[in-house]
Amino acid sequence: MAIKRSARRDMTNSWTRHFDKMWSLSLLPFVLWLLCCSFLASESSMMGQEAWLRPGCHKVGNTRKISIPNCVEFTITTNACRGFCESYAVPSIPSAVSGLFRPPKPVVSVGQCCNMMKSEEIQRRVLCMEGVRNVTFKSAISCSCYHCKKD
User: What is the pTM of this model?
Assistant: First the structure.
């Protein structure tokens, strides 16, 4: 009787070890898949609303309410550019810039701003008191950090 119990225990332990090994091997791909999905989900949310929080200039959706006198108010979503671009100021070396600038500049400043590089026109038909009007809006196709302009 003791031999049968021992053999049964060994067989049960063997089966349990085999089952545990198979279970852990089949669970590993699932756990990896789950981790990848959660990482991709967090990355895709960064590509959405919060992508502009990363350094650089990014194309983002921009929804706004439009009010034109004597027309029906409406909302429109176009693409805009938003982000953070590099700028800096350094003391200039007088001998190096004396021939370049008149009068010589004590500080050299470089500034880049988030700019719309390419855009497209979006047409919208609006119902107004005098009839239907076609209104045109710009929508960004591409954005980039580019030198800032003073107007």
Answer: 0.55
